[in-house]
Predict the 3D structure of the following.
Amino acid sequence: MGTRVFGDGTAAHRHARPPIPIVLEHLSRQGGYAVPWISLRHRDGTAILGVVDHDRVRTALVDRWCQTCGRPLRDRIVVLARHQDFAFGWVSEPGMHPECAFYSTSSCPMLTGVLPRHRSHAPAAMREPCGNPLCDCRAWGPPDDFPGRAEQPAERWFAIWLDPAGYRIDTDPVTGRPAVSLAGIRPLTIRPLPATGATADEARTLKAGFASLAFLAGL
C-alpha cells in the first residue's frame, strides 16, 4: 500500500512498494515496479525510471492513451499537476486511468514523499551509454528541465479528475509540444497528494478558482 490520492487528504504512511494491479500486469518490471509506458528505455528494454520518452509522451497525448498502462483512456481521467502548472495552464504529461494513477502515486518516490529533493545529477544510465552500439542512449542528454530542478525541493502535487470532454490536448506555446490544457476546464474534483506537501485547503481553492472562471465565462 502507499499514500492514497483518493482519500480525505491525509497521508497513510511514508512509502512501501505497492502490489502491481492486474491492469498493469502486461508492463515490464524493474526493481519490483511496473515500468510506466512513457518511460525512456535502452534498446534492451531497461528503463530510466523517472525520465520520459518524449515520443511516447506525444503518442499518449495525441491518441489519448494512459501514460502508465499505454491503453486508451475512458470515462474518468486523472491528470497529475504541480502547483505551478495551474499558473502556467499546461501539464506536460498525459492523463491516467484512476487505477493507474493510484499505482503511480503509491510507487513514485517523488509523489510519496520519499525524495524531498530532485536529483543532483542525471541518472547514471543517461550519463554513461550502454554497450549496445545500436542503442539511442548515445544521443541522450539530461532531461529538458533538469538544470533548473537539480537539487530543488520537490513540488506539491495534485490529482485533477476530468471527464473526457474536459481532457483537452493542445500545443504548449512555450515548449511547442502537445500538452494537457487547463484553460477553461471544469474539474470533477481536485485532490491533494499529501505526501508532497499539498493540502486539502489548497485543492479546494484551486477547484473554486476554476468554478469562478467557468461562472464568469457563462455571463
Remarks:
- Residues 117 and 153 are 4 Å apart (CA to CA).
- The mean pLDDT is 85.
- The radius of gyration is 17 Å.
